């Protein structure tokens, strides 16, 4: 893709007229050129012309940051420094939002542009009409050659550049090498959804390594199944597996956006039973649609934006209820992508719900069987894609993937089935059902339907493995895994929530999101001002800005495994309670009832609790702090012995105490 709308050596830029530079910018612009954008470019060109005379290097206008779906106003390569410049033409103040914006652009290059990893990067925020700001050049605490954003006005920019160059010293970037560097982003699911919704290809917003190649292969394999089903008037079911954070949801949204064209009769819908995820994605896309419209001079109403988004991202239960209203009509969509398909309800849970809530007393199908039957109403073709996570069932009545397989073999013999070759792994709990699917007439096992590399953490892909080893009490393996990743992915432990909050704020840069996550069973954290029963809105928690008390940044509201499953933070604080305790005989599982802890004895509920902590510890992309309170000898519900074993176990693995 075109990385910058305009690029040249500084010498050539200074020789060109404003009209020549503006012409190239306009020619490469993706949108209709409005006068405010043209005027802003003219102002930027004039400012840079006035301060670059006599300098050597390269200049880039509108440099692409596809992970964020945005472009940097200007990038300058001068000496050994990459200057990232964000102009606010006509502005008299440096807002905190703009400060974080330029910080985020610099972080994006530092983290995801290969030839920028080891270079000095200096973000500069230019509010053209602001007063003079003090110039203080400092490296951020991570000591990775990223400089704290500097504030400037239009007259001061040259002095800011000089100050940075004096601070850094001698050296010169290889321009050709820098330009040739691969851009290898790992977007959050919210960022990815916004990019895909705005017509980026999945290849544009993912890394170029083996893991991302696998992701693109999986998306292509699903597309081939969809096209084959349409061309041959067949009905097909795909099972896609993946480790936590491997991009299953990303694949699902990619497929939904690619196959949504009415003219090709390829209506598609992304469905999830994860209510918070659906709400957050829909609101994020709607807000982004309004924001992009505003930047282009178009007025988009938020209500209209929300309606448009809901046409291809829906709650699976709303989809199910629509199909209930007319038991014969096929849904408009020919392609249905069910995320976290293992969480669909079993027969008992579905029948109970239908009897109590929907006035269907004789309903006798599990949720998978009913959903397959709904898509089966199409006279010509249909494709269902089941995205399957391992070890993530966290709620009563979730059937696991075996019920989907049982439904196909029992009731839909004519459907073609495409199965990930890794569905046989124990964490997917397909068990006996897989033995039956092997005798199904139209079954194909495909390696391309498995996503084997976590892409959530761009710093260390082995985080999910470490968490599995920790929860499985494989201590030696956990020690080795953490030793290999700790330089890139810090994990620290503490007994003090206050220290954990301070650590999060110190680690995060720009708008990197952080927050506190806890088990939904963690009911005795109230003395630490953590109440899992207190209402919180996950949309506000995940999407609102730093100055909003409802956002995760404020570290007041906490999210549980139900709020965060399928989503990510940059930095997380996992606060442990006595519901899940480490003892000499292994993990001890408890729920709080009335005035005390009750031991959990059912294996199914034990697994839910273990999986809850698995979800909590695999949310952070860059690092996390684990808090295990000290307890209180005067409180029988918070005895120190409930907590000490867990803390000492985590310490034994090698996590440093703060």
From TrEMBL:
<dbReference type="InterPro" id="IPR018647">
    <property type="entry name" value="SLFN_3-like_DNA/RNA_helicase"/>
</dbReference>
<feature type="domain" description="Schlafen group 3-like DNA/RNA helicase">
    <location>
        <begin position="235"/>
        <end position="629"/>
    </location>
</feature>
<dbReference type="Pfam" id="PF09848">
    <property type="entry name" value="SLFN-g3_helicase"/>
</dbReference>
<protein>
    <recommendedName>
        <fullName>Schlafen group 3-like DNA/RNA helicase domain-containing protein</fullName>
    </recommendedName>
</protein>
């Amino acid at each position: 893709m075109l990385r910058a709308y305009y690029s040249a050596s500084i010498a050539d830029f200074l020789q060109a007229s404003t009209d020549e530079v503006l012409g190239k910018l306009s020619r490469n612009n993706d949108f209709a050129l409005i006068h405010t954008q043209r005027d802003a470019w003219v102002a930027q060109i004039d400012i840079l012309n006035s301060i670059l005379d006599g300098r050597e290097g390269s200049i880039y206008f509108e440099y692409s940051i596809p992970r964020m779906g945005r472009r940097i106003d200007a990038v300058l390569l001068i000496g050994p420094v990459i200057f990232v410049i964000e102009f606010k033409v006509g502005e008299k103040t440096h807002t905190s939002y703009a400060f974080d914006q330029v910080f985020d652009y610099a972080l994006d290059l530092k983290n995801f542009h290969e030839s920028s990893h080891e270079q000095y990067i200096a973000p500069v925020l230019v509010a053209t009409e602001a007063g003079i700001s003090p110039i203080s050049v400092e490296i951020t605490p991570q000591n990775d050659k990223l400089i704290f954003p500097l504030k400037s006005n239009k007259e001061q920019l040259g002095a800011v550049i000089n100050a940075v160059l004096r601070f850094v010293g001698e050296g010169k970037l290889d321009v050709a090498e820098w330009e040739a560097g691969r851009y290898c982003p790992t977007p959050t699911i919210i960022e990815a959804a916004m990019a895909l919704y705005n017509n980026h290809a999945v290849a544009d917003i993912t890394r170029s390594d083996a893991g991302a190649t696998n992701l693109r292969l999986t998306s292509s394999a699903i597309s081939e199944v969809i096209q084959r089903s349409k061309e041959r008037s067949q009905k097909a079911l795909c099972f896609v597996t993946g480790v936590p954070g491997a991009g299953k949801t990303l694949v699902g949204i990619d497929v939904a956006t690619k196959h949504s064209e009415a003219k090709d009769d390829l209506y598609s819908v992304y469905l999830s039973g994860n209510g918070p995820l659906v709400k957050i994605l829909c609101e994020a896309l709607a807000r982004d649609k309004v924001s992009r419209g505003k930047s282009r001079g178009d007025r988009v109403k938020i209500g209209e934006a929300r309606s448009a988004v809901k046409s291809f991202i829906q709650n699976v239960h709303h989809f199910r209820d629509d199909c209930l209203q007319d038991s014969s009509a096929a849904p408009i969509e020919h392609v249905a992508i069910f995320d976290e398909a293992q969480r669909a309800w079993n027969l008992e849970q579905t029948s109970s719900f239908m009897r109590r809530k929907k006035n269907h007393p004789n309903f006798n199908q599990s949720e998978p069987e009913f959903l397959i039957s709904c898509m089966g109403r199409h006279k010509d073709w249909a494709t269902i894609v089941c995205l399957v996570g391992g070890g993530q069932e966290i709620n009563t009545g979730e059937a696991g993937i075996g019920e989907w397989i049982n439904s196909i073999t029992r009731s839909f013999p004519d459907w073609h089935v495409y199965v990930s070759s890794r569905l046989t792994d124990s964490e997917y709990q397909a068990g006996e059902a897989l033995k039956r699917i092997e005798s199904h007439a139209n079954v194909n096992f495909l390696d391309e339907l498995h996503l084997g590399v976590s892409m959530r953490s761009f710093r260390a892909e082995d985080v999910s493995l470490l968490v599995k080893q920790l929860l499985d009490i494989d201590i030696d393996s956990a020690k080795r895994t953490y030793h290999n990743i700790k330089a890139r992915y810090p994990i620290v432990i503490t007994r003090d929530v206050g220290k954990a909050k301070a650590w999060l704020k110190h680690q995060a840069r720009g708008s990197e999101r952080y927050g506190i996550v806890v088990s939904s069973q963690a009911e005795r954290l109230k003395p630490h001002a953590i109440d899992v029963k207190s209402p919180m809105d996950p949309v506000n928690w995940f999407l609102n800005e730093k100055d909003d008390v409802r956002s995760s940044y404020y570290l007041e509201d906490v999210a549980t495994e139900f709020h965060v499953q399928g989503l990510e933070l940059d930095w997380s604080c996992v606060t442990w309670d006595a519901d899940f305790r480490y003892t000499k005989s292994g993990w001890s599982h408890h729920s709080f009832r009335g005035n005390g802890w009750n031991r959990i004895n059912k294996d199914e509920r034990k697994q839910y609790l273990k999986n809850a902590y698995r979800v909590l510890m695999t949310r952070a992309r860059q690092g996390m702090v684990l808090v295990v309170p000290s307890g209180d000898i005067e409180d029988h519900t918070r005895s120190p012995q409930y907590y000490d074993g867990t803390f000492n176990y985590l310490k034994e693995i090698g996590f440093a105490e703060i």
